[in-house]
Amino acid sequence: MPLLNFSRPQTIAILFLAVLLVIFGFYTLTPAKRLKARQEALIEWARSGAPSDFGKDFASSSYEDQWGHTPAEVAERVRAARFAYRNLTIEEQPPELTLSGRTGTVVQGISAHLGDGESRQFTLHCTWERESIWPWSWKLRKVEAPDLRF
After folding, report:
1. Any bridge partners for residue 120, and if so which?
2. pTM reported for the whole predicted model
């Protein structure tokens, strides 16, 4: 008695679905897709008021930014901004991704509307690195926003 009977319609349908899931899985796990998803998660983290640990969720062990903040200070600053500007909204432009080996760079325009009619536009430059072979292991190594002043 054969282990699989390929003449049964149910077996053919299950095999077809399995192949589709594998193809879809490879497509969604490509480095560019995962890097874009990590950048979107970072923006959403800031938009929602920094509810989780920035250092654990996003920052690499070699994290640095142009202001000299530690990952803990980044989370404090985002929470303080959300507290000071309760109606703060963040809008982003589509990101521009560049991949080179285990490093990816994302350049993205950001508009922060403070809620009192004032807004600030700046360009966010994020350098990400893959810490392991897993597609979801992107961690933020460097952040710059040359036209953003506090």
Report:
1. 112
2. 0.78
Residue 82: partners with Cβ closer than 8 Å, 6 or more residues away = 49, 50, 88
Residue 35 CA to residue 130 CA, distance in Å, equals 9
Residue 113 in this model has a pLDDT that exceeds 80: yes
Q: Is 21 helix (H, G, I), strand (E, B) or coil?
A: helix
Q: Six-digit token pair at 60? A: 């690499």
> Residue 140 in contact with residue 56, Cβ under 8 Å?
no
- Would strands 138-144 and 59-65 be described as parallel, antiparallel, or unpaired? parallel
Q: How far is CA 98 from CA 9, 34, 71, 105, 137, in A?
A: 45, 13, 24, 5, 17
Output the CA torsion sign for 143, 44, 72, 117: positive
**CA 120 – CA 113 distance, rounded (Å):** 7
pLDDT digit string, tens, across residues 70-80: 999 999 999 99
